[in-house]
Structure formats: C-alpha cells, structure tokens
C-alpha cells in the first residue's frame, strides 16, 4: 500500500499525459467529392477548388485517410461510396464533404453527378445519389459521422425538367433532414429551403470558413460550425446562414485532438479577469431585462462601471413603472369626474373630482418626463459601453441583446425577435414589450413598417434582413398613435383639454355639452301658464255663459298694446272677425247683451 502511495504522483503524471487527448482521437477517415464539369448543365467554377481546399485541410489535420475525387458520374460515385464504407468500418470519425449541385424532390435530398440529364422529375431516382446513400457510407464509424454539403444552389434542371405528377414538389435548395443514427451531424452551407453563394473568389464563403475553423485542435465540432456560421453571415451580408442538423452528447467532439504537452512543462494558470466575468453577467442581465435580474447583478457586483450601468437600468424600469401607474390613476380620476357630471352630482363633489383628475394628469406628465429622462440616460450609458467595448483592443463582441452594436451573427431566434421588436419600437411601429415572442401584434407592427418605409419584408418571421432594414432608419417611421383623450404633438402624446361647457366625445373632439334638465315635480299645466293667459281663459268661460261683450272686452284688452293691423279680433253678438287693416280696437267699458264693450276705430 505504501508503494502504491509512492507511485501516485507518477500515475497522476501519466494520466495527465495520456489522458489529455479527447476520447475521439482514434482513426479518422474522410471522402471529398467535388463536381464542377456538368455535361448537361452549366459548369460550376468553385466546387473543384473547394474540394481541393478541404482535402488539403483534412490531410494537414492528420486524418488517416483522405480520398479526394472530382467530376464523377453516377456509377463512379456509387463505387467510391462503396469503397469508402469499407474504410469506415474500423474508423472512429468519418467525414464526407460534397461540393456541387444538389436537389430536393418530395422532401428528399439528392446529389447530382456530372452525367445527370434529369429530363423528368422521376429521373432523380436513377441518375442522382440520395443523401441516405451517403449516410449509409459513414454509418460504420463508431463515434462521429459527419456529412458536409456545399450543394444548396439553384436547381439547373428546374426550367427544363418535366413533372410527371403535379403534386410532386421540387424545392429550392435542400430540404431539412433529421439523421436517424446517433452521433450524426449533417451540415448545410445554407439553411434548408435557401440557396448558397459561390462568392467572388476561387472558393465559396462556406468552404473558406470551414478550412479556418473545422480542424482547430481541441475545438468541439459544434462550436466550430458556430464560428463557420458567423463568418458566412458576415461575408454574405446576412444573406446566407449555414445550418447543422443532428445532435451529439454532452462531451466535446473535436475533429483534431489537442496534442499532449510535455510532462515537465508547467502550464501557467489562466489569469482571472474579473472585468470579463462582470461584463458577461451584465450582458446576461441585459438579455433578461427585468428589475430582478439587475438586482441580482448588483448583489454580485455592487461597485464599478457595470454596477453604475445596472443602476441606471433599474432607474429606467422604475420610472416606466411609475409612469404606467400614474397613467392608470389619471384614467380612473378622469372617468370618475365624467361619471359625476353625467349623474348630476353635487357641485362640490364634481369640483373635487375635477381637482383630483387635474392633479392625476399633472402627476402623469411628471412621470412621463421622468421616464423619458431615465430612458435617455440608460441609452446614453449603454451606448458608451458599446463604444468602449469597440474601442478596447481584444474586447469581446457586444452582447446580441444590446440595443446598439448588435452582433447579428450571434443572435439566437429569441434574441433576433427581441431585437427586431426593440428597433420597431424605436421607429414608432411597435408599442408592446420586446419579449421576443413573434405573435400577431408584432407581425402587424412589421407590416406597418413595410407600409410607411416602402419595404417588402416577410412579416411571418423575424429575420436579419428585417433587423438591418429597421436599424437603418434614424428616426420615427410609423405615425404616432395616441390613446383616447390624447393627440399627437411631435413625438409625444399631449392631453386634449376642452374649454368650459365642452366635453370630449368618442371621436377625440371637443363638443358643446347640453345642460342637464333639473328633475322637478309635475304640476298642473294650468298653473304653469302666465296669469294673462289664465285671465283670457276665464273671459272665454264667461263668454260661454252669455257675456259676449265681456269676452270681447277681454280680447280687446289683450291686444290693446299692439299696433294697427296686428291681428286683433273683434267679437260681438253676431260673431268674431279680424280687425280691418288700418284699424284697431278700443275698450269703451260696459259689455252685455246688445252692448259691445269694444269699438273698432279706423284712421
């Protein structure tokens, strides 16, 4: 036992020496296929060059077998795949790289040899090689099966190929695929349904990025393809996005193992960079974007540059919350004031409600100004951070969640959606919360942007094209839309204030209010008439009893003050008639049978 303890340091050293290489350091084989000289379709310039670059890259990476072929017919391709399958039987890693034309028919992918004619859609089954056939060739490999296709080009036979069935679909680029075998990855130069670019040089952007990253010693193959994706997006202006289908386990799987360091060499421990850790935590909190995340950041990093930025972010969130609460309170106070007016409440109650509504409105305006100021301060501080990161040598890329300096190539789908929403909000087309959920509301916002910016962006999904298009607009694009009771005043919504006696209607316009009729008890209609009318009624009743002269006298008295020909009526025992033009009645007193009280006097 003592001897075992004495040997422990030696055993540990040996374990470090021989265990430094990953488990995936066994036999590695590769097949490179490149087709340029097509006999029945236009030739391709780059595939043969791309194949030569990949063959050289894999050989320099120390692969045990690298079989490179180009411009093969269908029969030759089948023979090469059969021979390569024999080489993979005792291999740990098997790689197939193909550059040339490919086609998707009814959801299946096919590689097109140089002698293919493809006069009909069904000819692909005889003249082309299915992707499944390639997967069979790499299937014997024990630990990693990798197929790389730089074949997402336009179909050269699409215009001449006859369709035997109208329902048989022939897609653009290659179709999405999910490998059935474990530990299998299939890498496309462009996402399923999209086409790839050949580039302006001798090699495609995809192959250039592959040769740069794929065989980096110790680099997990999934991370390598992530770097390839970033490089291709940057080289193509975000028009081409490579994609990898399939999955691996939790262990790193590098194509090239890390060489073991000599036992005597002491590797210095990496220096701890607290600023880098702080920046990483800050960017994570920025992606979450709520108060709890910032408070957790400050609990971990209470002091320093990033702590000050985090405090500004909290101030902004609190100001937005205060403004939202003040807006809601102002709405409630205004509604209460209108309700009391409508029901004819006591004057003092209405006055108190009006004062409360005015105070709530003032508080809302104050909260709005505070919110805008906090947002401006936080945005300025964040811009300062972005500029500092860009100016610092060796600085890490700015987080994708940062409003400015967005690294489009590193955006996840959720981050991309959130960034597009943020930019749509900046140009006045989106008023919701930038939560990354691409729902109907966000689609309508992008549709509004298309309408006013004159673009034709696809509104169904968030895309880098949409992000670039919206970011290119320096100011508001969509017109400002305000809530009821507010009107657009530049870039802000101002409260609509109506004058005395006017109220805001449903069309956001001030209209004159109708005075509310006071509720009174019903009275006898006779009591509501003027006393003179009551007297006339009394005279008419007396006339009914035979006192015609008295009735006529009352009629004359009622019209005594009028001018000539003003519509007076003369009545006697014979009857009643209008007073003649130019005449008027005079009351001479008396009245009774055969004694007229009124006399018609003419000038």
Automatic annotation (TrEMBL):
Recorded coiled-coil stretches: 309-391
Pfam families of this UniProt entry? Peptidase_C14 (PF00656)
> What are the entry keywords?
Coiled coil, Signal
* One example GO MF annotation: cysteine-type endopeptidase activity
Q: Where is the composition biased (Basic and acidic residues)?
A: 521-531
Signal sequence annotation: 1-25
Q: Where is the composition biased (Low complexity)?
A: 536-546
Region labeled Disordered — which residues?
Answer: 513-546
Q: Which PROSITE patterns match?
A: CASPASE_P20
Q: Where is the Caspase family p20 domain?
A: 26-156
Q: Name one GO biological process term.
A: proteolysis
Source domain of life is Bacteria
InterPro entries in the record: Caspase-like_dom_sf, Caspase-related_regulators, Pept_C14_caspase, Pept_C14_p20
Q: Which SUPFAM superfamilies match?
A: Caspase-like (SSF52129)
UniProt-listed Gene3D superfamilies? 3.40.50.1460
Specify whether Nucleotidyltransferase is a keyword of the entry. no
Which PANTHER family does the record match to this protein?
A: MUCOSA ASSOCIATED LYMPHOID TISSUE LYMPHOMA TRANSLOCATION PROTEIN 1/PARACASPASE (PTHR22576), MUCOSA-ASSOCIATED LYMPHOID TISSUE LYMPHOMA TRANSLOCATION PROTEIN 1 (PTHR22576:SF37)
Record-given protein name: Caspase family protein
């Amino acid at each position: 036992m003592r001897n075992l303890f004495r040997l422990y340091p030696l055993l540990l050293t040996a374990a470090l020496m021989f265990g430094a290489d990953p488990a995936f350091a066994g036999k590695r084989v590769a097949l490179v296929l490149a087709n340029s000289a097509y006999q029945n379709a236009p030739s391709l310039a780059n595939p043969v060059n791309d194949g030569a670059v990949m063959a050289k890259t894999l050989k320099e990476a120390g692969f045990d077998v690298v079989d490179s072929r180009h411009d093969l017919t269908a029969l030759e391709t089948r023979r090469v795949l059969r021979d390569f399958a024999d080489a993979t039987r005792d291999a740990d890693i098997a790689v197939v790289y193909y550059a040339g034309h490919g086609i998707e028919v009814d959801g299946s992918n096919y590689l097109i040899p140089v002698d293919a004619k493809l006069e009909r859609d069904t000819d692909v089954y005889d003249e082309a090689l299915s992707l499944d056939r390639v997967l069979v060739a790499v299937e014997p490999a024990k630990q990693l099966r990798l197929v790389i296709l730089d074949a997402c080009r336009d179909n050269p036979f699409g215009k001449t190929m006859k369709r035997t069935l109208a329902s048989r679909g022939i897609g653009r680029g290659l179709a999405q695929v999910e490998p059935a075998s474990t530990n299998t990855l299939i890498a496309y130069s462009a996402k399923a349904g999209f086409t790839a670019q050949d580039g302006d040089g001798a090699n495609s952007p995809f192959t250039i990025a592959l040769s740069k990253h794929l065989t980096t010693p110790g680099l997990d193959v999934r991370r390598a393809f992530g770097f390839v994706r970033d490089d291709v997006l940057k080289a193509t202006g975000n028009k081409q996005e490579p994609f990898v289908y399939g999955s691996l386990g939790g262990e790193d799987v590098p194509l090239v193992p890390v060489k073991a360091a000599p036992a005597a060499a002491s590797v210095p421990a990496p220096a701890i960079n607290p600023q880098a850790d702080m920046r990483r935590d800050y960017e994570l909190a920025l992606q979450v974007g709520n108060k709890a995340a910032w408070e957790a950041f400050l609990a971990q990093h209470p002091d320093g540059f990033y702590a000050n930025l985090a405090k500004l972010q909290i101030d902004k969130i609190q100001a937005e919350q205060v403004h939202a609460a003040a807006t809601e309170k102002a709405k409630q106070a205004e509604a209460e004031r209108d309700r009391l007016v409508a029901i004819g409440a006591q004057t003092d109650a209405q006055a108190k409600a009006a004062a409360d509504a005015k105070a709530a409105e003032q508080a809302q305006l104050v909260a709005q100004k505070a919110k805008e100021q906090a947002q401006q301060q936080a945005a300025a501080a964040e811009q300062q951070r972005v500029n500092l990161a860009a100016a610092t040598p060796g600085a890490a890329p700015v987080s994708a969640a940062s409003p400015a300096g967005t690294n489009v190539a590193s955006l996840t789908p959720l981050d991309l959606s959130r960034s597009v929403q943020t930019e749509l909000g900046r140009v006045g087309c989106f008023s919701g919360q930038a939560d990354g959920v691409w729902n109907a509301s966000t689609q309508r916002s992008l549709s509004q942007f298309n309408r006013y910016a004159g673009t034709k962006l696809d509104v169904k999904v968030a895309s880098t094209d949409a992000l670039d298009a919206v970011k290119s607009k320096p100011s508001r694009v969509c017109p400002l839309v305000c809530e009821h009771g507010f009107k657009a005043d530049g870039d802000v919504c101002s409260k609509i204030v109506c004058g005395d006696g006017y109220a805001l209607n449903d069309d956001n316009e001030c209209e004159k209010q109708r005075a509310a009729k006071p509720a009174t008890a019903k009275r006898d209609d006779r009591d509501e008439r003027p006393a003179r009318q009551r007297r006339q009624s009394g005279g008419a009743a007396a006339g009914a009893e035979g006192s015609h002269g008295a009735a006529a006298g009352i009629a004359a008295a009622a019209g005594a003050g009028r001018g000539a020909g003003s519509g007076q009526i003369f009545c006697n025992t014979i009857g009643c008639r209008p007073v003649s033009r130019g005449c008027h009645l005079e009351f001479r007193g008396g009245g009774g049978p055969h004694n007229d009280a009124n006399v018609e006097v003419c000038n």
